[in-house]
Amino acid sequence: MTADERLTLRVVVPDATRTGESVEVRVLVGGRDILADAFGKGPGEDPRYVLVPGGPLTAGSEPHEVRLAKASCTEGCCGALYVTIQRDGEDVLWNGWRNPDEDEVDLPAFRFPASEYQREIERATADLSWEWPARTVARLLEQDLRQRTDWLTRWECELGAVSAWPWSRGEINVFLFHPGRPSVSHDGPWLQFQMTLAVSHDAPAEQAARLAERLLAADPRQAARLVGGSPAFATQLGYT
């Protein structure tokens, strides 16, 4: 079954009093929230992952799978919602719906006119009106830090993320891994550090620049707290 409808991407910011909830991208097709229909176990993906220039929602000739939502606990526990996206002639096709926690997903294939589809992706990506000041600072700071890799090499660190949480709007958090993020290819000891930085009423771009210079000035681990890894890893890497 194929449904021809209009795609709308809507960013939803939770109430600041609800601790633990995240900003999410809701996917509407013909005004229908398809995440609500097919996956009620958690939020849509954060816009930082799906609404970026040239990001995963961009359709090309080769099909690729995109995660649109995940369980509030973990994907491994209660699943996630995936779709396969592909450019098909003058259209963009969404099909191959998948949830690792279910045998099948009750959604049809969707076909969108490619020009309208791309306009909606670009509109949603460019619209940052939903950001609060700390979220803007976090975005700009992360962009800056990812362009400056020398400081990470000097301190044997890898940048994890710069986050701003809806329930804590006066601060941002910088996450670092030392010596690198855990992965299949990295089986050695690792630690995660978190640095919490206050955000003021100054212009976000000015704050991001100041915070970047502050982080670049010295070993960031000295001003951070250890939040991940294990006691054994800490001992191996010289931490108590």
Tally of extended strands? 12
**Structural Rg:** 20 Å
Q: Which structural class matches the secondary elements?
A: alpha+beta
Main beta sheet: strand number and arrangement? Answer: 5 strands, mixed
What strand order characterises the main sheet? 1-8-7-6-5
How many domains, in number, for the residues? 2
What is the H/E string? EEEEHHEHEEEHHHEEEHEH
Summarize the structure.
The protein is an alpha+beta fold.
Description:
Strands 1-8-7-6-5 form a five-stranded mixed sheet. A four-stranded antiparallel sheet has the order 9-10-11-12, with helices on one face. The chain has two domains: 2-126, no CATH class; 133-236. The protein has 240 residues and is of the alpha+beta class. It is globular, with a radius of gyration of 20 Å. α5 crosses α7. It contains eight helices and twelve strands. It has helices spanning 34-38, 47-50, 75-78, 114-126, 133-147, 150-154, 204-216, 231-236; strands at residues 2-4, 7-12, 24-29, 32-33, 64-70, 80-88, 91-98, 109-113, 158-163, 171-178, 191-198, 225-228. Helix content is 27%, strand content 30%.
